[in-house]
């Protein structure tokens, strides 16, 4: 049996694309391996959102040269956001046999067949989204109980720092019937929790059916017990979505709503489309309606023109809104973006200082929020072994990671855990009982 190895960089959507490719390869008789050396086919699914993942992908691809030298029959394929943005950067790696983009990953089977005969470079134009024409194939689930479902691809917002609109094309929503078909199939396969994915998922709109409508539709699928959606955009997130979260028991009280900055001046330069006050108002509305909600966000520090005062406004926004989790990135200029023409004027050391300071504040907030869970009884969907491998781990409805001792047969089940220890990043607890299968 032929073997494939996939290395994935980047966001959940990339992970989902890789799972789909793996599913297609499995249907073609390939078997998955975790060892690139023993693979007949190696796929690198790349991310280009910041210089760091971009460089990581290049160095990973560079290292595959050794394998190609020892086993020249190995097919090496590179896909995803890096080649979609500039295929030339990949073509200089002479050991790469196949280069494809974000619009044709669904054609991986056919592309590989061609790559066995000659070097293939196929980057499609964003006007021909092949992805929607492909029949439903069982994706290869990294986690058999929690699955991603891409409901919207691309982005029209053009935040001035962001390359995604250039790598993923214009925004398009997946037909609700197709979403439901996929979710039903996942439920049949034993999946309990689905994450509806979109670059700006709350702008989901298919002929008038919006995200809230879709949440109601998905919630009717039997067997699916939990529904999450990500990523939200402060302009798209609205009261109707909050109402749906309140009304539908299965929808988890967790929102990832990236503010990026707390300074209205910087938000304007970022072309985010909202002010500091508008962001804060949305969060207050959400917390008022759903007091138990958990909030997470992304932040960029050291954006061109960000003064100490602007940064302090980000700190104060965090103080006001209170986050359960936050991801902080140093600004990284990206090709094609508007901000790449701005002067990258915050020195590297200062970006790093701001990153540390903001991360510290977010850590303190997470710690305080988690501490309140001490002694509480939480319903957890067991996902597998804990990151360290000795215990089991799973998540609460509001997305807190919980580790506890228990036997592996609990994986995929809902259990009650009494929280006995907390940290900023996870909760530890004692198994009380299995609640439902
Ligand atoms: N709306 C998107 C955001 C994708 S990019 C979504 O679906 O998740 C994820 C995060 O990367 C952004 O929220 C932003 O905080 C960060 N990011 C994007 N471009 C960046 C850049 N040029 N420099 C630093 N961080 C960046
Ligand atoms: Fe990028 Fe902005 Fe679109 Fe998110 S909303 S993908 S940050 S351009
Ligand atoms: Fe990266 Fe592309 Fe996702 S640039 S963050 S893999 S959309």
TrEMBL record:
User: What are the record's GO terms for cellular component?
Assistant: cytosol
Write down the required cofactor(s). [4Fe-4S] cluster
Q: Where is the TRAM domain?
A: 371-433
What does the record note on quaternary structure?
Monomer.
Name this protein carries in UniProt = tRNA-2-methylthio-N(6)-dimethylallyladenosine synthase
Instruction: Please tell me the species this chain comes from.
Output: Desulfurobacterium thermolithotrophum (strain DSM 11699 / BSA)
Please tell me where [4Fe-4S] cluster 2 binds in this chain: 155, 159, 162
Assigned protein family:
Belongs to the methylthiotransferase family. MiaB subfamily.
Recall the taxonomic lineage recorded for the source organism. Answer: Bacteria, Pseudomonadati, Aquificota, Aquificia, Desulfurobacteriales
Q: What is its EC number?
A: 2.8.4.3
């Amino acid at each position: 049996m032929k073997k494939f190895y996939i290395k994935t960089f980047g966001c959940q959507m990339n992970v989902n694309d890789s799972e789909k490719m793996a599913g297609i390869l499995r249907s073609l008789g390939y078997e998955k391996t975790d060892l690139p050396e023993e693979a007949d086919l190696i796929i690198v699914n790349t991310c280009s959102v910041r210089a760091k993942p971009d460089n990581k992908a290049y160095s990973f691809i560079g290292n595959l040269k050794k394998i190609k030298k020892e086993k020249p029959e190995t097919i090496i394929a590179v896909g995803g956001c890096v080649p979609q943005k500039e295929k030339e950067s990949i073509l200089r790696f002479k050991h790469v046999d196949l280069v494809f983009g974000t619009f044709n990953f669904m054609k991986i089977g056919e592309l590989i067949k061609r790559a066995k005969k000659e070097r293939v470079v196929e980057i499609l134009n964003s006007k021909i989204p092949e992805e929607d024409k492909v029949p439903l194939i069982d994706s290869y689930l990294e986690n058999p109980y929690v699955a991603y479902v891409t409901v919207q691809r691309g982005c029209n917002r053009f935040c001035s720092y962001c390359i995604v609109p250039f790598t993923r094309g214009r925004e398009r929503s997946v037909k609700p019937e197709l979403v439901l078909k996929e979710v039903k199939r996942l439920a049949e396969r034993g999946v309990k929790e689905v994450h509806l994915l979109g670059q700006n998922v709350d702008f989901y709109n298919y002929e008038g059916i919006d995200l809230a409508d879709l949440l109601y539709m998905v919630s009717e699928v039997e067997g699916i017990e939990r529904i999450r959606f990500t990523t939200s955009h402060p302009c798209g997130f609205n009261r109707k979505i909050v109402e749906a979260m309140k009304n539908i028991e299965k929808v988890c009280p967790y929102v990832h709503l990236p503010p990026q900055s707390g300074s209205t001046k910087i938000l304007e330069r970022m072309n985010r489309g909202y002010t500091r006050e508008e962001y804060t108002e949305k969060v207050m509305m959400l917390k008022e309606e759903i007091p138990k909600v958990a909030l997470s966000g992304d932040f960029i520090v050291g954006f061109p023109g960000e003064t100490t005062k602007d940064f302090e406004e980000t700190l104060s926004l965090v103080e006001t809104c209170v986050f359960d989790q936050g991801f902080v990135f140093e600004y990284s200029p990206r090709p094609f973006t508007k901000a790449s023409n701005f002067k990258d004027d915050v020195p590297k050391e200062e970006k790093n200082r701001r990153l540390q300071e903001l991360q510290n504040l977010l850590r303190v907030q997470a710690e305080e929020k988690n501490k309140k869970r001490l002694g509480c009884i939480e319903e957890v969907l067991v996902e597998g072994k804990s990151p360290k491998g000795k215990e089991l781990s799973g998540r609460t409805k509001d997305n807190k990671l919980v580790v506890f001792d228990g036997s592996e047969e609990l994986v995929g089940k809902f259990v009650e855990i009494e929280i006995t220890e907390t940290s900023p990043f996870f909760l530890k607890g004692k198994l009380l009982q299995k609640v439902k299968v």
